[in-house]
Amino acid sequence: MDAFPNVEEDNDLEEFLGHIEDDAFVYAPRIRLVDRGNPLDWYTDEEFFVRYRFHKVTVTDVLLPMLRPDNADLRGVPVPRFLQLLAVLRFYATGSFQIVAGDFHELAQSTMSRIIKVISIEFAGKLPEVVKIPQSNEELATARNLFYRVAHFPGVVGCVDCTHIPITSPGGELAEVYRNRKGYFSLNVQVVVGPRLEILDIVCRWPGSTHDARIFHNSRLRLRFDRDEVSGLLLGDSGYPQLRYLYTPVRNPATPAERRYNASHIATRSAVERAFGIWKRRFPCLSMKLRTATQTSAKIILACAVLHNVAISQREPVPENIHLEDPHADVPIPAVQNRNLRATAERRAFINRHFARHQ
């Protein structure tokens, strides 16, 4: 037996015992399974529509099959695809902050941000299938007949105009090109609307300072009409040039025929303004400032165009019970000086042929 005890070992033992007695054990965190429930069971069909802008059957039978299936590897605790869709529809239908839309479905803001981007990209990928100009002679004839019933303007297959969708500043050296004439940042989105107020064509890549005529001049839509791939007329406002297939109002009409032409033109072209109102009322996120990256904002806009056409095809009603004033009225566009004398002469002959006498 040692004459002197090992004091160092005794001190280590006392320190270890003190650690056990005084400090709580630190356990590794466990994954918490969240029962998010099913909003289909929470609400009636009308209550569901108010919150998501679609009835239950449209969401389950039409929208959900448009998306890729659930993650099959089962790693982690993935959010079910159905709840991802509802969370994004809720964001589109309110235009609120991502954290608010996420809290509604018990999702973190970071998760909500990722889901909005992924789902919007998937819906935007359906654009060629859902948003398209009439192709067959029968479809074109139907469009011309429906437009003609409005105010007896012959040959119209679509009405074109641009609308500004507010976005947050993209930052960087080129941020100011996104500031429009009213002083806020936006994307200037060109849309062609059909007689049922459906979206036939959309261009969503130009900053807010871009003139409407420039967007049209550089669009594939113009190329298709130049090549006579589409048979019919487009109606546009004075921000567009007069072309052989794009008819604009007559400035300072001097004859009864020109006044009748302008009245018919305005009444028929009002379809695009009404479509913008319905589109933004159905998806208020388009009226509020999109606080996402610019590319993601463009995908959100395209996704809402696809969903707008789905809503029309499924006869979903326009949500009239929620009235939201658009805080960002569309930016006034200066008129284009028509220097195309041949197109102007063609318009004059068109007016004399169709509007010289009372219809």
Write the SSE topology.
Blueprint lengths: L6 H16 L16 H4 L2 H8 L3 H8 L17 H14 L3 H7 L4 H16 L2 H4 L6 H15 L4 E11 L19 E8 L5 E9 L4 H6 L2 H7 L6 E3 L10 E2 L8 H27 L11 H20 L27 H14 L5
Parallel strand pairs: 1-4, 4-5
Antiparallel strand pairs: 1-2, 2-3
Helix pairs in contact: 5-6, 5-7, 6-7, 7-13, 9-12
Oligomeric state of shown chains: single chain
Instruction: Please estimate the helix content.
Output: 40-55%
* Strand element count: 5
Q: What is the string of helix and strand elements?
A: HHHHHHHHHEEEHHEEHHH
Query: What is the radius of gyration computed over CA atoms, rounded to a whole number of angstroms?
Result: 29 Å
Q: Which percent band covers the strand fraction?
A: 5-15%
Largest sheet: 5 strands, mixed
Major beta sheet, strand line-up: 3-2-1-4-5
How many alpha or pi helices?
A: 14
For the terminal residues, how far apart are their CA atoms? 125 Å
Sheet/helix structural class: alpha/beta
